[in-house]
């Protein structure tokens, strides 16, 4: 069923007598397959937009495209640069802001600006008992009570169903430019990206397509971007070539949406590690990995592997246990996702906390049961 | 401010509890002498004082764990304490509680420039985190005014901000991982040197939970490369309304200053008398600081000044040297001290939408007349985080109560216009009884349910954050 108001949402959850599969725009079928009645959040519309305060409050079902268009009219944007999952996952549907927040979806700019969770100022949601709860607000600094907004961001609809979110937005920069090099090994690329990110030049993107480009992005006032690109070319990024404007933007859309993996039948892992560990992890996985895209200076790894067996889960997670980090199986056949834990299994005490939190927020266990393995 | 009555059954067991703590801690790490305990009877909200039953100063996570196991078994309330600089009473003890101070956990454990993080023990002071990396060109961004003294543990507990968080975010945006001792003594790790959570974002939940979910003993923090330079401009206006409009216009353009600080006339006059910083005689002034290379700074400041000129400023004062920059900041940095010289004061930190600044400042002026108490406003205007300083005389009977009533009215006003009770100081005891203004019983119940998970016995800092009547059933 499609729900168009918070009141109806609360009623629907309260009245549910079985598991619910929470759906935003339906672009992002991730996690262990959930059996249940589909509950589609169609609460749309802008409650408040104050460009001068960088604040936007919207219904959780509002399409991202509408939000981006609205912001663009005022010269603003979402800083966390959410990806369009349709490209990677081959899905249709319309990406929504609620989906982006619920999955904490953040693109290349996360390394500099922060994640979706960092730009979500407040949320209203319906918990598993059908109670309407709000947390946070619409102001940029707010430490009043516990930060349940962070908990909701990235909880994939397993703790509550978002009805409304408040976001901090960002002014669009005057210009962007990229510095690009070809032919670097992952280890060489990560060292270059690290040097750029450790410079005072406010790099807003640092990525490497294994076997292809290494790219660094700068955004801001025209003069500043010109100065910074030159300073980097004169320093740690000697030999990198300048790409400007729309051509630069296209490079980052490709990384954001993991476009190189589009239309293939490989399984895809999303891995978060310390950037410097990325080359070591690639070495450890060896030929299992058919393609890889590194973002966030190496800290975010998109790995394509054959969709067979456990998709390399044991080896991958074994390495991660030594290094720190986590791996999520974002794309695989439903049978694979039913057999392989999609989310990183947590250490026992953390898993216990997760289970108990789930039980408090969703006492009947009806919201996306099993999706996160809890 | 009401606090729970100390439990007689705990006080009666004091000797046993103290001797058990001595068994697991170094000899000088357990304090139960009445005179020495005076040091722990309050934090920076010094209007409220109560010596704890005892204080412990463990030197390792293992010792913190041992302390928690004993307190958990004995059912003793534990009040975690960083450096005791909380303005909200976050570290205020009760007579039956153990103060758990983390000041002796102050080591740097790991510095990694290639991956841009530092791992420290949580008792380390905020400024000394930057101190550990600045020679190599890095810094830790959150900069609360108390950064010389305040501990990372307290910053995490309160999700502290500072003047520069307009650009760099607050603690939660710069915290990557923690080691934490749970109420029952179990040690857990959340997050690490990688970004974001693989499952539920427990790190985001712990940050800002005011020491009620666990005792953080280690933290992994994001460090950033220092900008090439920074420079402020001072702009004076003949009304608060115009200054507020100027802030909004600057933010809209896409220039991201590192700080936009606002002072109103009472505050300007007080600091002028105190420091002689040479501020213009005006109703409101902004200090706006930008970063970058010399050319980038010139570019940004010229754009900011062009916007300001459209608002008929009474003065635009640019800095041509580090000395002049220091002089521009002098009054702002001395503002609290200057107000403190006039009288005792209470510092609020409600946050409001930037667009509501003129209205809220006007209403604060009216409340000031109504209560007969002077107010100075000095705050982080870029993000709407206000700091009204209400002057009162603590020695005049009834004046503290009057001041608190006025403070409550201002905070209710902040919520009414779409803001919140506290932007960076935390709820503690100070705003505890106002939580119902911002949140419904269901909202608060959901938050308390989280504490039930982490601390089922409610022994960690139990009398804070939630109104006492609301938490009574859970506190037992």
From TrEMBL, chain B:
* Manganese as UniProt keyword: no
Alphabetized PROSITE patterns for the sequence: FAD_PCMH
Q: Which cofactors are reported in the record for this sequence?
A: FAD
Q: Which GO terms describe its molecular function?
A: FAD binding; oxidoreductase activity
Q: Where is the FAD-binding PCMH-type domain?
A: 48-226
Q: Which UniProt keywords apply?
A: FAD, Flavoprotein, Oxidoreductase
Taken from the record, one Pfam family name reads: FAD-oxidase_C
**What is the name listed in the Swiss-Prot or TrEMBL entry for this protein?**
Putative glycolate oxidase subunit protein
Q: Which organism is it from?
A: Maritimibacter alkaliphilus HTCC2654
